[in-house]
Amino acid sequence: MEISQGSSCGIKRGSIAGIAYYECSDYGTGVPILFVHGLCGDKELFTRWLTSARDMKINSYALDLRGHGESGGKETLGRLSLEEYCGNVLLMINHVIQRPVILVGHSMGAVCCQKIAAEHPKNVSVLVSLMSSAPRGVRPRGALVRRALHPYYLKALWKEQPFVFRTAEEYFFLNRIPRDIGKGLFKQESGRATKQLILGKLRVDKPIKPPHIVVSGKYDLAAPPSQQRAIQLKFRTLWHLELNTGHMPMLEPNAEENLKQILIYTT
Question: Of 37, 44, 161, 204, whose CB neighbour count within 10 A is largest?
Fold first, then answer.
């Protein structure tokens, strides 16, 4: 399987089987970090955390799930599934990183990472569920849930078409983000994968054996702390860290400190 690479500003660009990724990997043999984005996201969300990990001499990676960012698959984005996203993450671990990782999944990405940690525990050194969407068996909390019933979203989910968040919903994700950073942040997402997420179609029935940290944001309106506590109970997780953030801790003014707080629990 061929891997192509280039570099810029200390962050290398690579791709494998149409999956694009960022890599900072010249910093020793410690356990590397893999960041996985959520709905309507891409690897660009994690550039500050990649450089922060680099400054801490920690190898780190972030990928664009298929159909997102610089990855291929945009022509079929509306029909891409959560299972396919999980496969993208496993591809990165098995063929690029080639060792167990600290797996950091954000929002929808956290649900995919929970599935991977349960089904492939040898690939995961530590799992971090970061502002996780509600997995199967956990009732979604927050006012954002009702907005998913808007005809705009129902049409995209029913017909499995791509969509992007409306401005009216962006506030729930960006309430702690400076306006200039949040502008144009969200990209298109799969109607099918989002439907699977809302209906709880991605089953995580096996126990999660790797150490698991559930992280919530005190001011998160999209995946509030009450939802994260329910996820902690579902998976019988020992650790729940509440940051003084909203839904996007990697973009807030104190992003670097947020990552340091999380990594304390992974050592």
Answer: 37
Q: What is the pTM of this model?
A: 0.95
What's the CA gap between 208 and 238, in Å, rounded? 12
Q: Domain map of the chain by residue range?
A: 3-264
H runs (alpha helix) in the chain: 47-55, 82-91, 108-119, 144-147, 151-158, 167-174, 179-182, 191-199, 225-235, 255-264
User: Phi and psi (nearest 5°) for 173?
Assistant: -95, -30
Query: Residues near 98 by Cβ (< 8 Å), separated by ≥ 6?
Result: none
At the fourth CATH level, the homologous superfamily of domain 3-264 is Alpha/Beta hydrolase fold, catalytic domain (3.40.50.1820)
Structure confidence at residue 7 as a pLDDT band (50, 70, 90): very low
Going by C-alpha positions, the residue among 143, 230, 154 that lies closest to residue 199 is 154
- Containing 48, the helix (H) or strand (E) segment is helix 47-55
* CA geometry: angle 110, 115, 121, nearest 5 deg: 110
Q: Which residues contact 38 (CB under 8 A, 6 or more apart)?
A: 105, 106, 107, 108, 109, 110, 133
What pLDDT, in 10s, does the model give residues 14-27? 999 999 999 998 88
